[in-house]
């Protein structure tokens, strides 16, 4: 049973084609990694699904609901939550008010509201930061806050855009555990991540974007072995010379380097 | 038919004065993201300066123009460097408020010096026209349009080909890359404000030659510059010319068809509609 | 903390209520004006301070309230009460409906659009005979100065109460969220268009209410005077001096500016304007957060994007 269906999606910015004829669907309850070099169009894709921007062509279905043309807030209310690569938090509100507002907007009231806010803050390990203004939070806290805020929507589908960038190794381990927990709760996730270790450990399936097109789609092990993916990530010459691709290869490998 | 052509011609020529004013306004906005609410008062001040130079020294406004341009260039440079730069990196509306305060001070200062009465720059040619092919070409407005074309061209050449001009353009695309290129942004900003103050002064002299003015006339001039800039597109070299011509013709035709009291409805109604439908203007870049 | 606020509020109320007992007409006149601007500034604060949309055209609603109430009572012989209520409701609806397109604009574009809105409304008013045209409208004189002092004071108190209720509600947090980051607000399901337009409409309702009372108080309405852009700027400056986004800020700002203006008037009309101008510059340069404004810490207060650099650093 698919929860999200993308059909022949394209996006142009001015004369520049950023996404070209993308089609895929997500099964309910699955965790799917979305990888690709910088500038491949990953964030653009997430932005289109979340309603932050409209596609030039193609369709997006959430369950049986067509998302094209819907404003972002309506999509969010349907149970499709997202985080932003460059963190966007409410800097004039305290950490708990950030989460509380999201929960309140989505129907939590009274005592249930407070319980839920406390649960989400504890879940994202932010309990010691309640009362701190959004603008005073560290980047790592902001990333977790975005996640807590997204979870306050009781989402069926989560779009996570590099929630783990900048975390230290122990934080990273806990974040991976958290995602595993969410997955057990039945939340479907589309995860953009540069860290192959994360993608390998949590994804059922991996999509690879390269220069706006979907060049691979399959189980993680298969993706890592694919020569096409290695070329996209590391450039033809690198693959020929070294013939290898470390699954643990850290982030930020740019095209053609 | 002939009458209508003359009316349209009047509108086109009016576009010259509107355009010079917008040239300065658009430059500040495009490069520094600064809306200068004191813009109109700068222009009126320049008109007073031209008036004083004519009355006291007998200096013709066109001969005084280079001098007034330089005075305003220097004044604008110092003002930006000393005061406006201090807040320009902050909240957008703090700069708006600051320039509003400046406008208040300038306007009341001018009332103290020159009273609130209407004045004019009396030259023998102020109200005369050239005649060509049966049409009237009011001298001052015709020259304003010619000046606008020349100034637009010069500004474009300056921004495109001179070292300083390129620094200004680079800064308009973002302060971070500009700083990486080793540009001193406060100085580039001061220069930009100086240059646009000088251009505003030229526009002010033309306004003073063709209209009676008082210290209160600054506000409408600022608003006119807004409209023309929005029409033509912010930060484009040729936008002020295009916007000036559009607004000039619309106002001229509109005031004949609907009556002069409706000109403001046209101006502001048009501004609202353009803002809502196409905030980047006719020549502007598409929004991203 | 709570107690201190309560004591402060009580004190202000007491002074304001007792003021007329020990003073003359001049003080009552000044007091009425201060109360009027406090209400206007509080109304501006809803859209400009809390929601973060610096309107340069809020005078539109003040003017509409005055003009419509005058037109209804003179042309249709309505009671002031009915004329006032209908005028306020129309202005509120006008604010809501115009907010829908105008609040899509950001930064300068929004400010300019609201400035144009005020001027366009004035231009329409001066061309419609029913609304008084270019000549203005005279209204029958009623009441005593003292009554208008209490009414204006009541509206100012109402504005403060509305602000207090909003700031302490999730709706207030919604507006603050919009001010922080509109895209993020949408991403958690907030209908930003509706929330902003509602704030603009509330701002319009308060402005129009003041306008209605002003018209009856002055018993003469001159369109250019009631649409004067400087009135919007006063609302903005007062809010800013007192502290944008706070409950007491706009009121404090109105009192300070009101008293300073009166002091300067003692010298000359012109000097008072000059001093106001210099005052604005000083506030912008040295008191950008206002007296009651929260001092921003850390990375806060910097603007994102192309101008996020500090020239002072």
TrEMBL record, chain A:
<dbReference type="InterPro" id="IPR003593">
    <property type="entry name" value="AAA+_ATPase"/>
</dbReference>
<dbReference type="GO" id="GO:0005524">
    <property type="term" value="F:ATP binding"/>
</dbReference>
<keyword id="KW-0547">Nucleotide-binding</keyword>
<dbReference type="InterPro" id="IPR003439">
    <property type="entry name" value="ABC_transporter-like_ATP-bd"/>
</dbReference>
<feature type="domain" description="ABC transporter">
    <location>
        <begin position="4"/>
        <end position="236"/>
    </location>
</feature>
<keyword id="KW-0067">ATP-binding</keyword>
<protein>
    <submittedName>
        <fullName>ABC transporter</fullName>
        <ecNumber>3.6.1.3</ecNumber>
    </submittedName>
</protein>
<dbReference type="Pfam" id="PF00005">
    <property type="entry name" value="ABC_tran"/>
</dbReference>
<dbReference type="InterPro" id="IPR027417">
    <property type="entry name" value="P-loop_NTPase"/>
</dbReference>
<dbReference type="GO" id="GO:0016887">
    <property type="term" value="F:ATP hydrolysis activity"/>
</dbReference>
<dbReference type="InterPro" id="IPR032823">
    <property type="entry name" value="BCA_ABC_TP_C"/>
</dbReference>
<dbReference type="Pfam" id="PF12399">
    <property type="entry name" value="BCA_ABC_TP_C"/>
</dbReference>
<keyword id="KW-0378">Hydrolase</keyword>
<keyword id="KW-0813">Transport</keyword>
<dbReference type="InterPro" id="IPR051120">
    <property type="entry name" value="ABC_AA/LPS_Transport"/>
</dbReference>
From TrEMBL, chain B:
<comment type="similarity">
    <text>Belongs to the binding-protein-dependent transport system permease family. LivHM subfamily.</text>
</comment>
<dbReference type="GO" id="GO:0005886">
    <property type="term" value="C:plasma membrane"/>
</dbReference>
<dbReference type="InterPro" id="IPR001851">
    <property type="entry name" value="ABC_transp_permease"/>
</dbReference>
<dbReference type="InterPro" id="IPR052157">
    <property type="entry name" value="BCAA_transport_permease"/>
</dbReference>
<keyword id="KW-1133">Transmembrane helix</keyword>
<feature type="transmembrane region" description="Helical">
    <location>
        <begin position="91"/>
        <end position="115"/>
    </location>
</feature>
<dbReference type="GO" id="GO:0006865">
    <property type="term" value="P:amino acid transport"/>
</dbReference>
<keyword id="KW-0472">Membrane</keyword>
<protein>
    <submittedName>
        <fullName>Branched-chain amino acid ABC transporter, permease protein</fullName>
    </submittedName>
</protein>
<dbReference type="GO" id="GO:0022857">
    <property type="term" value="F:transmembrane transporter activity"/>
</dbReference>
<feature type="transmembrane region" description="Helical">
    <location>
        <begin position="6"/>
        <end position="27"/>
    </location>
</feature>
<keyword id="KW-0029">Amino-acid transport</keyword>
<keyword id="KW-0813">Transport</keyword>
<feature type="transmembrane region" description="Helical">
    <location>
        <begin position="61"/>
        <end position="79"/>
    </location>
</feature>
<feature type="transmembrane region" description="Helical">
    <location>
        <begin position="188"/>
        <end position="209"/>
    </location>
</feature>
TrEMBL record, chain C:
<feature type="transmembrane region" description="Helical">
    <location>
        <begin position="34"/>
        <end position="52"/>
    </location>
</feature>
<feature type="transmembrane region" description="Helical">
    <location>
        <begin position="273"/>
        <end position="292"/>
    </location>
</feature>
<dbReference type="InterPro" id="IPR043428">
    <property type="entry name" value="LivM-like"/>
</dbReference>
<feature type="transmembrane region" description="Helical">
    <location>
        <begin position="199"/>
        <end position="221"/>
    </location>
</feature>
<dbReference type="Pfam" id="PF02653">
    <property type="entry name" value="BPD_transp_2"/>
</dbReference>
<feature type="transmembrane region" description="Helical">
    <location>
        <begin position="147"/>
        <end position="167"/>
    </location>
</feature>
<keyword id="KW-1133">Transmembrane helix</keyword>
<feature type="transmembrane region" description="Helical">
    <location>
        <begin position="110"/>
        <end position="132"/>
    </location>
</feature>
<keyword id="KW-1003">Cell membrane</keyword>
<feature type="transmembrane region" description="Helical">
    <location>
        <begin position="59"/>
        <end position="76"/>
    </location>
</feature>
<keyword id="KW-0812">Transmembrane</keyword>
<dbReference type="GO" id="GO:0005886">
    <property type="term" value="C:plasma membrane"/>
</dbReference>
<dbReference type="GO" id="GO:0015658">
    <property type="term" value="F:branched-chain amino acid transmembrane transporter activity"/>
</dbReference>
<feature type="transmembrane region" description="Helical">
    <location>
        <begin position="82"/>
        <end position="103"/>
    </location>
</feature>
<protein>
    <submittedName>
        <fullName>Amino acid/amide ABC transporter membrane protein 2, HAAT</fullName>
    </submittedName>
</protein>
């Amino acid at each position: 049973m698919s929860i999200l269906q993308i059909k022949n999606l394209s996006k142009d910015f001015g004369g520049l084609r950023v996404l070209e004829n993308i089609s895929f669907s997500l099964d309910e309850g699955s965790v799917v990694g979305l990888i690709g070099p910088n500038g491949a169009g990953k964030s653009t894709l997430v932005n289109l699904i979340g309603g932050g921007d409209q596609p030039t062509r193609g369709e997006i279905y959430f369950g049986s609901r067509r998302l094209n043309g819907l404003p972002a807030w309506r999509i969010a209310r349907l149970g499709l939550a997202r985080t932003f690569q460059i963190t966007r938090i409410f800097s004039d509100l305290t950490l708990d008010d950030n989460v509380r507002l999201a929960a309140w907007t989505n129907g939590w009231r009274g005592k249930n509201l407070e319980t839920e806010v406390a649960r989400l803050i504890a879940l994202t390990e932010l309990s010691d930061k309640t009362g701190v203004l959004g603008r005073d939070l560290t980047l790592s806290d902001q990333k977790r806050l975005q996640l807590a805020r997204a979870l306050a929507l009781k989402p069926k589908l989560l779009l996570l855009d590099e929630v783990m960038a900048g975390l230290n190794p122990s934080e990273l381990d806990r974040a991976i555990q958290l995602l595993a927990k969410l997955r057990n709760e039945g939340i479907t996730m589309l995860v953009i991540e540069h860290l192959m270790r994360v993608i390998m450990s949590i994804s059922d399936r991996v999509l690879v974007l390269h220069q706006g097109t979907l060049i691979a789609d399959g189980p993680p092990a298969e993706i890592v072995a694919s020569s096409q993916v290695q070329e996209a990530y590391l450039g033809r010459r690198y693959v020929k010379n070294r013939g290898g691709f470390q699954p643990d290869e850290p982030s930020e490998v740019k095209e053609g380097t | 038919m002939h009458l209508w052509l003359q009316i349209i011609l009047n509108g086109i020529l009016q576009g010259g004065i509107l355009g010079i004013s917008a040239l300065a306004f658009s430059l500040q906005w495009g490069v520094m993201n600064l809306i200068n609410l004191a813009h109109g008062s700068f222009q009126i001040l320049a008109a007073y300066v031209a008036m004083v130079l004519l009355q006291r020294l007998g200096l013709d406004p066109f001969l005084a123009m280079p001098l007034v341009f330089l005075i305003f260039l220097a004044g604008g440079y110092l003002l930006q460097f000393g005061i406006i730069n201090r807040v320009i990196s902050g909240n957008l509306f703090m700069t708006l408020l600051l320039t509003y305060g400046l406008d208040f001070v300038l306007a009341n200062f001018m009332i103290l010096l020159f009273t609130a009465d209407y004045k004019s720059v009396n030259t023998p040619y102020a109200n005369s026209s050239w005649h060509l092919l049966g049409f009237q070409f009011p001298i001052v407005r015709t020259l304003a349009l010619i000046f606008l074309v020349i100034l637009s061209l010069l500004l474009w050449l300056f921004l495109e080909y001179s070292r300083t001009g390129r620094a200004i353009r680079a800064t308009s695309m973002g302060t971070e890359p500009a700083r990486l290129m080793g540009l001193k942004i406060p100085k580039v900003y001061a220069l930009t404000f100086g240059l646009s103050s000088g251009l505003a002064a030229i526009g002010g002299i033309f306004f003073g030659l063709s209209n009676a003015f008082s210290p209160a006339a600054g506000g409408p001039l600022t608003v006119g510059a807004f409209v023309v800039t929005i029409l033509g597109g912010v930060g484009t070299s040729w936008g002020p010319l295009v916007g000036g011509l559009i607004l000039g013709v619309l106002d001229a035709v509109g005031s004949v068809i609907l009556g002069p009291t409706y000109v403001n409805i046209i101006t502001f109604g048009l501004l609202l509609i353009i803002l809502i439908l196409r905030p980047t203007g006719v020549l502007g870049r598409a929004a991203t | 903390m709570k107690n201190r606020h309560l004591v402060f509020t009580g004190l202000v109320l007491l002074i304001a209520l007792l003021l007329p007992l020990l003073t003359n007409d001049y003080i009552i006149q000044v007091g009425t004006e201060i109360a009027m601007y406090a209400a206007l500034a509080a109304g501006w604060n809803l859209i400009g301070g809390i929601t973060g949309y610096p309107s340069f055209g809020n005078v539109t609603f003040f003017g509409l309230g005055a003009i419509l109430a005058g037109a209804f009572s003179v042309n249709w012989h309505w009671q002031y009460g009915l004329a006032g209520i209908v005028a306020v409701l129309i202005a509120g609806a006008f604010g809501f409906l115009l907010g829908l397109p105008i609040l899509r604009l950001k930064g300068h574009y929004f400010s300019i659009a609201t400035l144009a809105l005020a001027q366009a409304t004035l231009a329409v008013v001066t061309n419609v005979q029913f609304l008084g045209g270019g000549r203005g409208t005279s209204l029958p004189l009623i009441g005593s100065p003292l009554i208008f002092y209490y009414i204006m004071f009541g509206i100012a108190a109402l504005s403060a109460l509305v602000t207090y209720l909003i700031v302490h509600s999730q709706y207030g947090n919604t507006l603050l969220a919009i001010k922080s980051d509109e895209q993020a607000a949408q991403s958690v399901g907030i209908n930003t268009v509706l929330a902003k337009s509602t704030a603009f409409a509330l701002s319009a309702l308060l402005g129009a209410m003041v306008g209605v009372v002003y018209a009856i108080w002055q018993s003469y309405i001159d369109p250019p005077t009631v649409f004067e852009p400087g009135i919007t700027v006063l609302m903005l400056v007062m809010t800013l001096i007192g502290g944008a986004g706070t409950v007491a800020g706009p009121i404090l700002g109105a009192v300070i500016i009101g008293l300073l203006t009166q002091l300067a008037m003692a010298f000359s009309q012109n000097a008072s304007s000059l001093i106001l101008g210099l005052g604005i510059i000083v506030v912008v340069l040295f008191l950008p957060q206002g007296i009651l404004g929260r001092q921003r810490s850390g990375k806060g207060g910097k603007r994102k994007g192309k101008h996020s650099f500090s020239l002072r650093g």
